[in-house]
Design a protein that fits this description.
single chain, alpha/beta, Rossmann fold, 6-stranded parallel β-sheet, 4-stranded parallel β-sheet, 10 strands, binds D-glutamic acid
Length: about 260
């Protein structure tokens, strides 16, 4: 049983990592559409088109289940993908909201790309569940290229973190949703600025738990198989890729292939 996961770049690898841990016997293909990154400043029309291309590609490789490991694509294209492709599709926005609501928060912050924040997908889903929660959102698209290039350790980027996150100071947040799969990679930096008390909500654990539950019910026999293959497909491989992947996984032993999406 093959599971296909996609994101615009390396961000979704944070989801791939959790799903790989939770589901060792399932074959997993990760698609990072690095040639067309960033998605987060593009329109719904374009993101829908890219998302359809990505699912078509993963389906052509025999993936039977899709995980949209990109908040931007999840916020704009989940419904479209679900209606177009008759296979199970999991998204990171519902997972992030589910995780955020567990502690009964009163005030939540959400950071994400411009497209994710403009779509209001988080606000709508949170308020549909509990209309008493106060939600503050802030677009931080600029974090994505910095993370993709592995530059976050450089001191002068602290200023960019501060400029983008100072809006949340004194908002008494109970939690901050990391509404972009790239952001867990800079969790430490975000905590250094906002303080250790604030809980950072990362949808990767929740989406892998939801997926696991679904598979336990629908494909119980697949769990008894031996450890299965993982592959990473990229539409472009930059010089930074190896160092960033090493930072996420502490190793580099993946089967990484370049692929064109038509
Ligand atoms: N990682 C993607 C997300 O979760 C977006 C990054 C991008 O702008 O392409 O939204």
């Amino acid at each position: 049983m093959k599971i296909g996961i996609f994101d615009s770049g390396i961000g979704g690898l944070t989801v791939f990592k959790e799903i790989s841990k939770a589901l060792p016997s399932f074959e997993i293909i990760y698609l990072g559409d690095t040639a067309r990154l960033p998605y987060g400043i593009k329109s719904k029309r374009t993101i829908d088109r890219y998302s359809i291309n990505n699912v078509k590609l993963l389906k052509s490789l025999d993936c039977k289940i899709i995980v949209i490991a990109c908040n931007t694509a999840s916020s704009y294209s989940t419904n479209l993908l679900k209606s177009k492709f008759k296979i199970p599709i999991f998204d990171v926005i519902s997972a992030g909201v589910k995780a955020a609501l567990k502690d009964n928060p009163k005030i939540l912050g959400v950071i994400g790309t411009d497209s994710t924040i403009n779509s209001m997908a988080y606000n709508k889903m949170i308020l549909n569940n509990n209309s008493n929660i106060k939600v503050y959102t802030k677009a931080c698209s600029i974090f994505v290229p910095i993370i993709e290039q592995g530059l976050i350790k450089k001191k002068h980027y602290d200023k960019i973190i501060e400029e983008n996150l100072k809006f949340f100071k004194n908002k008494n947040l109970n939690g901050l949703i990391l509404g972009c799969t790239h952001y867990p990679i800079i969790k430490r930096k975000i905590k250094d600025y906002l303080g250790d008390d604030i809980s950072l909500i990362d949808s990767s654990l929740e989406v892998s738990a939801t997926l696991k539950k679904y598979l336990e019910i629908n494909y119980p026999n697949e769990f008894t198989k031996r450890k299965s293959k993982r592959s990473i497909l990229l539409t472009d491989k930059s010089n930074y890729f190896d160092s960033v992947i090493k930072k996420i996984f502490n190793k580099l032993d993946f089967n990484i292939k370049l692929i064109d999406i038509k």
